[in-house]
DNA sequence: GTATTTACGCTACGACAGTTGCGTAAATAC
DNA sequence: GTATTTACGCAACTGTCGTAGCGTAAATAC
């Protein structure tokens, strides 16, 4: 992994790290719309132009920050689908509730989707940011998707079940509440959601002749 | 509904309409981040300050626009749940795909969530905008929720089913794909989604002793 | 050594959101 | 009529994102 000895002046050692660190501090303190790029640059001890050479817009910087913050969510595959799903989705929901409070006084505790909404908008504004965000989520979702695959293989889900669609249902419900309805997504809701999906999947009833 | 004869100079007749019309035209032409408030005011023939007296931020104006654009989605309750859901969600998905293209050259056709993403961000930035958006969706969702209630009552869904949670699953899947994964939400996907939810709900299988 | 390449810091600038202050217009209250 | 209240238009201003130009610093190529 040695650098192949580029041509001109090398990039300032550690500037990236100092910028991200300063940006992270300001983001968590004030939120996305109330911190200025100029201030990030000043705190990091670099010129604003240097920052822009690395991240061409504030939106790009945001993705880099979120990708950094986002801690990996553990995925246990114990064979108890209900339990595994509840644990996993509970962790996701908890993480999202945390994102909600980034840059707000805890007292606020309103129903805003916070920084996740900004991330979504950033992805919509710039194609390359969108690509990066989608890659982030694709990577994050591989393990839970595999969890559903295994469940289907061992007969815990109907054989015709599509893991992708089922995952859309589960994750979608959480993001829908976070971003659209603003409804809370606590542990109790996650349990109800998983319960309903799996109970549905196990209870026969009329219709569908 | 006669005006109670207010005190001072009345608001300029029709200014609201002209502003909204001008803003709508610019929004559909260029998209949210590439049209300027100054330009809207100029086209509407009012001073910028007059516009700001009505909508305190660009985000507020956006909600007013979307609320205006959003056509009511028909909800048929024929007794055939699968069909009714497919039709309803198909219309919603079609509307969302339309929102995706607002302000973009048709050629682009990328995976951006477009104006919906901006709406979500606007809701996250201002508490009152969030309130308005949530009211918009609550109103929009009453009929489909009733549809699910009826289905449960006549035994087409398990009696323990929560309409709210089920609706989160369905609508959530669509918005999740629109806003997060960028995956298409065409008629084929809607059919697969409804099919899977209802097939799950009708097919017994092991697990859940 | 000199030439070249790439990054840096700095200053100035353009575009746009949103604000402020002020003079004026259009209504009601008396 | 005059006083009061509310809206309007206009112009100037601030804050912030992002860009452009330029001189300089630190590396490699020869």
From TrEMBL, chains A, B:
UniProt keyword terms in alphabetical order: DNA-binding, Transcription, Transcription regulation
What PROSITE patterns does its record include? Answer: HTH_TETR_2 (PS50977)
Q: Which GO terms describe its molecular function?
A: DNA-binding transcription factor activity; transcription cis-regulatory region binding
**Highest taxon in the source lineage:** Bacteria
Q: Where is the HTH tetR-type domain positioned along the sequence? A: 13-73
Quote any Pfam family the record assigns.
Answer: TetR_C_11
> Which residue ranges does the Swiss-Prot or TrEMBL entry mark as DNA-binding?
36-55
Return the SUPFAM superfamilies for the record: Homeodomain-like, Tetracyclin repressor-like, C-terminal domain
Give the PANTHER family listed for this entry.
HTH-TYPE TRANSCRIPTIONAL REGULATOR RUTR, TETR-FAMILY TRANSCRIPTIONAL REGULATOR
Q: What is this protein called?
A: DNA-binding transcriptional regulator, AcrR family
Q: Which organism is it from?
A: Streptomyces indicus
For this protein's source organism, the top of the classification is: Bacteria, Bacillati, Actinomycetota, Actinomycetes, Kitasatosporales
């Amino acid at each position: 992994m040695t650098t192949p000895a580029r041509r001109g002046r090398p990039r300032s050692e550690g500037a990236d790290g100092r910028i991200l660190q300063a940006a992270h501090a300001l983001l968590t303190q004030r939120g996305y719309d109330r911190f200025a790029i100029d201030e990030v640059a000043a705190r990091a001890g670099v010129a604003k132009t240097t920052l822009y050479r690395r991240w061409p817009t504030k939106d790009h910087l945001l993705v880099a920050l979120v990708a950094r913050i986002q801690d990996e969510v553990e995925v246990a595959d114990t064979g108890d689908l209900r339990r595994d799903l509840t644990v996993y989705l509970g962790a996701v929901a908890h993480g999202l509730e945390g994102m909600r409070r980034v840059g707000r006084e805890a007292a606020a505790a309103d129903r805003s989707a916070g920084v996740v909404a900004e991330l979504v908008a950033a992805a919509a504004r710039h194609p390359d940011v969108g690509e990066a965000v989608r890659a982030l989520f694709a990577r994050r979702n591989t393990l839970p998707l595999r969890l559903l695959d295994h469940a289907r293989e061992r007969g815990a889900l109907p054989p015709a079940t599509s893991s992708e669609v089922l995952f859309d249902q589960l994750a979608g419900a959480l993001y829908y509440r976070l971003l659209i309805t603003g409804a809370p997504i606590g542990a109790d809701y996650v349990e109800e959601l998983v319960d309903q999906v799996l109970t549905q999947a196990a209870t026969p009833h009329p219709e569908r002749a």
